[in-house]
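Changelog note: in this version the structure field was regenerated for every chain. One regenerated record is shown below for reference.
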Amino acid sequence: MSSSLKDKKKVLFLKDSFSHIRSKSKLILFLPTWRGNKHFDLFSHNFNQEALEKILLNNDAYMLINFHPFDEKLRLRNV
């Protein structure tokens, strides 16, 4: 498969996946970078999913998370 075809498929996937997001909604990107402790887990430090969801809802915002490769186990969790 050519790289341009792969790119087109990725774009279509993203458009379909996020079609419900309005153009005026806020997007928050969480893209963790390298860190020294590969066992560190941000979500085990008093993380409150309900509070985050409330803040996002009240501010017409969405958070997109791309976990660090160290956090492969979190990719499988519905956060």
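Spot check on this record: The radius of gyration is 16 Å. The mean pLDDT is 78.
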